[in-house]
Amino acid sequence: MSRLPEQKTIKGRRLVWRGEPLTAADPLAAWQGLLNIRGVHESDPFFTPKLSDLPDPEVMVDMTKAADRVTKAILNSEHIHVFGDFDADGVSGTAILTEALKAAGAKVTSSIPHRSDDGHGIGVEPVREAAEAGAHLGISVDTGTTCFEACDEAVKLGFDLIVTDHHLPERSPERGPEQSDGSEKLPDAFALLNPAHQRCGFADRKLCGTGVAFFLLMSVWKRLREAGKEVEFDLRSLLDRVAIATVADVMDLVGANRILVFHGLKQLNRENGIAPSVGMQALMKIARVKKSVTVETIGFYLAPRINAAGRMRHGEEAMRMLSTADMDEAMALAETLDETNKQRRLVEADVYKAAELKLGTSEILAVYDEQWHAGVVGLAAGRLARKHGRPAAVGFITPEGQVRVSLRGRPGFHVGDLLNSCSEYLEGFGGHAGAGGGTVKAGSWNGFVAAFGEAVAQQSEHAGDQLTQSMDGVLELGAMHTGLAERLQKFEPVGQANAAAMWLIENVHITENRLLKGGVVRLKVSDGTQWLDAIVFGGGAFGDALERGSIVSLLGQLKLDDYRGNGAVQFVVEDVLVENQAVR
Predict the structure, then answer these.
(1) Integer angstrom CA distances of residue 396 from 209, 372, 545
(2) DSSP per residue over 307-344, as a string?
(3) At the topology level of CATH, where does 360-463 sit?
(4) Which of 70, 96, 410, 433 would disulfide-bridge 238, Cβ 3.0–4.6 Å?
């Protein structure tokens, strides 16, 4: 075992162990060892997420004030306007707020900004338009914490604006996110519901914007009941969209998020007696989702199509799909999103290649071009960050001639903090740990690049080595049993901060190698006495290492084989160790 951390995988990763490396020859030993590594036991509430275990919404700072105001608006039939955002979190939150508030009898309108024309955040003009249309109350979702001008305008107009958000507030670059010294700059909103600000910390600051909006609705529904107003609308019917938003925004799947996503997936899979929303049914049909919906399904098939609207056209289309009760309308919108997502893939690939060329050998991954599409610069930044192991900022030119950048990071870095460190050169910005963006002040690009590079360098000192693969243990083929695969499913939903169990199978022979459609490779491996089926998605990444007759060590996950069924298992290969491939 001691030699393994000294080797690298074909993908260039160094193995690290989550605990004392586990070696198991049978399923029960593997399961017990994994429980010890993860610090849980079989009777732990972690394995039975209950909605009743969600934290009390009233604990969130400003919740009492916000929920009282929304309840008053509903009871008095006031006009409420929802200010959303154009990504999956923003449109999902807008959809659940409008659907629920309308069900409670409120008059509700909403608006979603256009990515390239308007950018993130609440604009002053939309506030004026909402007030002129007769709205007296506004609720933002997934935005608003740094929208100072919009909040000030609302105060002038006597328009009560409740901000629900999860992005970091502006603060002094020298201060960390956990320091409570009053260095934050907060908007003059009627109420600010944001777990990320210093005085709050609700749900360990892990909620996405839609999650915050859902907790607001929980508090409002409680007040409506207390006021004697019975609303025949089950808030649990919104959890499919809450799950979509939480996964799409790459939130940690622990605590409250684990509970919300667990039950949202139950709804998407029709396992809790509540059908998915009409829009989600349409999207799953268009995306050809035929198996159980998982976090992976959301991340690879559903969220990209929802995000495509805001990236390439207008987020309003996605919001309408997520909130409509008309199946014909939902199917038409889902088809549009599917076609838009195909276009997005092509444009993204072009921008990424151009960004790589333009950066050349630069150590600071900050670049922009007037030809690049606003909707894909964030995705290009993400690809750059993953390839080079450090945050990237990729920008486009707004209609006003300014550079607007999207930032992406990787584990160990905090994009929101990077933006705060560059605030001197930004007119407006917002972000959280994994992503963010802002508009560079005129003539300040070079200053921004220098500040960004310095901030990345400072965070690099504590970010750790990215090119690692966290492992749970080494399993012999005898442990690869249906019973273990079924037990491993208890950790679902797996994802950010709750990684799937990762195993190493040492020195197995490749006895069969079959190339399937889409670059998928089906393997059969043996240790000389036992055999195991394995599958590789994108097998081309491993060259000839998996040829028949090869002896390799495989890294991956043990899963039930849904295709074959009847309790069959397969090993999903994530990476490969080849004998004598030492670290250079």
Answers:
(1) 25, 6, 41
(2) HHHHHHS-HHHHHHHHH---HHHHHHHHHHHHHHHHHH
(3) Diaminopimelate Epimerase; Chain A, domain 1 (3.10.310)
(4) 96
pLDDT at 118: 87
Short-list 581, 584, 583, 562, CA closest to 572: 562
What is 4-46+467-578's CATH number, 3.40.190.10, 3.90.180.10, 3.30.300.180, 2.40.50.140?
Answer: 2.40.50.140
Render pLDDT for 539-557 as a digit per residue (tens, 0 to 9).
777 888 999 999 999 999 9
Q: Are 165 and 122 in contact (CB under 8 A)?
A: no
Amino acid at 409: G
Tokens 């030699």 — which residue?
Answer: 3
Q: CA-to-CA distance for 293 and 264, rounded, in angstroms? A: 10
Q: Which residues contact 34 (CB under 8 A, 6 or more apart)?
A: 22, 472, 473, 488, 501
Q: Which of 82, 105, 104 has the alpha carbon at shortest distance from 94?
A: 82
Number of helices (H), then strands (E), belonging to the chain: the values are: 17, 17
- Asked if pLDDT for residue 175 goes beyond 50, the answer is no
Distance CA 395, CA 440 (A): 9
Is residue 246 within 8 A of residue 295, CB to CB? The reply is no
Among 82-86, 248-252, 448-452, 540-544, the range scoring the smallest mean pLDDT is: 540-544
Asked whether the beta carbons of 452 and 366 are under 8 A apart, the reply is: yes
Classified as helix, coil or strand, 402 is coil
Structure tokens at 8: 């690298």
Q: Cα-flanking dihedrals φ and ψ of residue 526, to 5°?
A: -145, 150
- Residue 300, Cβ neighbours under 10 Å: how many? 11
Q: Report yes or no: 309 and 87 within 8 Å, Cβ to Cβ.
A: no
Which tens digits make up the pLDDT trace of 197-216? 999 999 999 999 999 999 99
CB-based contacts of 504: which residues, under 8 Å, 6+ apart?
4, 15, 471, 473, 474, 475, 553, 554, 555, 577
Dihedral angle computed from the Cα positions of residues 267, 272, 273 and 274, in that order, rounded to the nearest 10 degrees: -30
CB 307 within 8 A of CB 283: no
User: Quick check: 391 and 416 in contact, CB under 8 A?
Assistant: no
Could you tell me the pLDDT band of residue 1, with boundaries at 50, 70 and 90? very low
Question: In angstroms, rounded to a whole number, what is the distance separating the alpha carbons of residues 180 and 198?
Answer: 5
Which of 474, 395, 476 shows the shortest CA–CA distance to 437?
395
Closest CA to 11 of 564, 472, 539, 445: 539
Structure tokens at 214: 């859902």
Whole-number Å distance between alpha carbons of 202 and 185: 19
Name the architecture of domain 57-172+184-337. Alpha-Beta Complex (3.90)
The DSSP code for 576 is E
Chain CA centroid to CA 93, Å: 14
Q: What does the pLDDT read at residue 6?
A: 57
Output the six-digit token pair for 216.
């607001």
Every domain of the chain and the residues it spans: 4-46+467-578, 57-172+184-337, 360-463
Q: How do residues 2-45 score in pLDDT, each as one tens digit? A: 344 457 899 888 898 998 888 999 999 999 999 999 999 999 99
For the chain, the farthest-separated pair of C-alpha atoms sits apart, in whole angstroms, at 78
